[in-house]
Write a structure and sequence with these properties.
- By secondary structure, this protein is an all-alpha fold.
- It has 36 helices and no strands.
């Protein structure tokens, strides 16, 4: 009960004139004045309420009994005495006094609430449904008497829900929320929390969505819905709710930040920029907003814009993830020296187990950045103690070449070949070194001939060894050299699976799609459930825009095998887009971007741009194509042409398009 409402009732009770029907003979000269008597009763009542609030129930009871001696018909006092007795565990006293209160005043809210508590306690002890019904009836009378009593409404709703009477509970919630002056969200939130306490999350979400609240009254419901959808992984649903909240709180930096984070989690880095930039404008010093805006920019290849946001971040915000973002930003901006520094800082944060797992990869990347920064001696020192695995040796060879020590590089490979003459990585590296060397006569042709001779010396193992050499060449970005080598190696009548796999991958990389398709189909005859082959062949067909239904069926099988593989998701999105189903492709591409690990992928962003274009979102398409360019797409010329054409088209008046 609100304080002002209580005072009004009490004053009305104590200060009202005595009805004529109850008047007695005139008082004697020494009797107390009626007004003074009621004033004294009121002061005693206030003292009693204070004592009860402080837990001094015995004192409160004595004071209330003295008040009733002064005015036996004060309904609020009987109700207060009933509440005090209930707190002291005297149920008989509580029930008698509360009943007296509602007899004197059927609209005595606290009397009904005390009786409701007594009946509901009886129901809990005995499971007597009649007691439950009586308790609910008293709560209904309390809300009828005081429609603004939120606690009584919520008690009714929770009890009905606990009894499984959800339709009735929802009806009461809707009734309560329609009362002017009452917190419209409170009844719905109470019912939703009851459902959540029972693990019925879907029902709670559906209930809150049915509430129909609008305006600022809807804010608590929308905030809860956003949390629930986010916890269930429904990022699209969460974003939708957050955008509704933004309409109500457009200048709330925390809400804008949250929208940006959800979009980042969805893989929609372009969409994340606008709310994150706005949040940063409203709160420019917030390190978390700066960090997350930098993340979005880096995922779009805009490291030069991200670096100023990352500079000066407090140590508490320089997490492993943030340092890795910083590395990507520096590399994109051509600041390889800075990238190497951040990688060193990241290495220092690793514990022993993490260092054992990731230390070598970080040292390799730091050495590559030092080499790009023109510091080959430091790059060599960074990997001095690393073992001679293929990635390390490849980098050592590059460092020696940068230092002008080609002979040492050749000697290094020669020593490794002596130890392990059939290691395909060393054969591939020797081939690359010879093909790139200006001193080596014959260039690529001579290099391939020597590699071929070494492979054929393996006898029956030559096809398997040759396929591995080709795959190493492809992995080190020498696809044309790998294709040349495989052409020279030839395809036997019954080629092994390894050779077919290498041939398909290499020929597809150099654009010889017809021959690649033939190799993939031979592979499928051998291994019809190979998800990698299903994906690659399906993508090849989709990219060429033919046999799309067959491509879709193959790629779906691959995705079923690995539902979060970003390459498979990209392939599925691409074939759906080719089939004219770009609306289905969009969430798959966002998932692929979200699932990807490591550096951002230019192809994914180009495909995303094409899908946005098909959906009529030209601005989004242009942004994604620019991101693909910034991320180093191999299709630079085609992308630049698409961007130029659509920029010119958008610049024209709509009537002339």
């Amino acid at each position: 009960m609100r304080a002002q409402h209580l005072v009004a009732i009490v004053l009305a009770c104590f200060l009202a004139p005595v009805p004529a029907a109850r008047a007695k003979a005139p008082p004697s000269a020494g009797a107390e004045d009626p007004t003074a008597r009621r004033s004294r009763a009121f002061l005693l009542y206030v003292r009693a309420r204070e004592a009860a609030a402080e837990g001094r129930q015995d004192e409160a009871r004595r004071l209330l009994e003295r008040v009733l001696e002064l005015d036996a018909d004060a309904a609020p006092v009987h109700a207060a005495l009933g509440r005090t007795c209930l707190a002291a565990g005297d149920l008989a006293c509580a029930e008698d006094e509360a009943k007296r209160a509602v007899e004197l005043d059927p609209a005595c809210v606290d009397g009904h609430k005390v009786l409701a508590e007594i009946e509901l306690g009886r129901w809990q002890r005995t499971r007597d449904r009649a007691a439950l019904d009586r308790g609910l009836e008293h709560l209904a009378r309390a809300t009828d008497a005081n429609p603004l009593d939120t606690a009584a409404w919520i008690a009714r709703i929770r009890i009905l829900a606990a009894d499984g009477r959800m339709e009735e509970a929802e009806r009461v919630a809707r009734e309560a929320s329609s009362i002017p002056g009452l917190d419209a969200a409170a009844p719905w939130m109470a019912l939703a929390r009851t459902l959540l306490a029972r693990g019925r999350v879907d029902d709670a979400i559906a209930l809150l969505e049915r509430s129909g609240l609008t305006g600022r009254a809807a804010i608590p419901v929308l905030e809860t819905l956003a949390d629930l959808k986010g916890n269930r992984g429904d990022l699209a649903g969460q974003e939708e709710i957050l955008l509704r909240l933004r309409e109500l709180r457009p200048e709330d930096p925390e809400l804008l930040h949250r929208i940006g984070l959800v979009r980042l989690e969805r893989g929609d880095h372009t969409g994340a920029l606008e709310p994150l930039r706005k949040a940063q404008q409203l709160r420019p010093g917030d390190p978390m907003i700066r960090r997350d805006l930098a993340r979005a920019l880096v995922r779009l290849g805009r490291g030069d814009e991200a670096l100023p946001l990352l500079e000066g971040l407090p140590a508490a915000y320089r997490s492993r993830r943030t340092l890795l973002t910083w590395v990507f930003a520096a590399e994109q901006a051509g600041r390889y020296d800075l990238a190497a520094e951040r990688l060193r800082e990241l290495e220092e944060k690793l514990d022993d187990d993490e260092r054992a797992s990731f230390g070598q990869a970080l040292a390799l990347q730091r050495a590559r950045d030092l080499l790009e920064a023109g510091r080959p001696e430091e790059a060599a020192e960074a990997i001095r103690d690393l073992p001679d695995d293929p990635a390390v040796v490849r980098l050592r060879v590059r460092i020696l070449e940068a230092l002008g020590r080609d002979d040492e590089a050749a000697q290094l490979l020669s020593r490794l070949r002596e130890k392990d003459p059939r290691n395909p990585a060393w054969l591939a590296l020797e081939t690359i070194l010879a093909a790139d060397s200006k001193k080596d006569e014959g260039g690529a042709e001579g290099a391939v001939a020597r590699a071929l001779a070494a492979v054929r010396a393996a006898g029956d193992e030559a096809p398997a060894l040759g396929s591995q050499v080709a795959m190493w060449l492809l992995a080190w970005d020498h696809g044309p050299l790998a294709a040349r080598f495989l052409d020279a190696l030839g395809l036997p009548a019954n080629p092994p699976v390894e050779l077919l796999r290498a041939r398909a991958a290499v020929l597809m990389s150099v654009g010889r799609t017809g021959e690649a398709e033939a190799a993939y189909r031979m592979l499928l005859e051998r291994s019809p459930d190979d998800d990698a082959v299903l994906n690659d062949l399906g993508y090849l067909l989709a990219d060429e825009g033919r046999d799309l239904d067959e491509a879709l069926a193959m790629i779906r099988r691959a995705v079923e095998s690995e539902p979060e593989n970003p390459n498979y998701l990209d392939s599925l999105a691409w074939v759906l887009h080719r089939l004219g189903r770009s609306g289905e492709a969009l969430p798959l591409l966002l998932r692929a971007i979200r699932s990807g690990e490591g550096a951002p992928d230019a192809t994914l962003h180009e495909h995303l741009g094409d899908v946005y274009l098909a959906l009529g979102q030209v601005d989004r398409a242009l942004a994604e194509w620019r991101a693909a360019l910034a991320l180093g797409s191999e299709r630079r010329q085609e992308l630049e042409e698409k961007i130029r054409r659509w920029e010119e088209r958008e610049a024209k008046p709509a009537s002339s398009r």
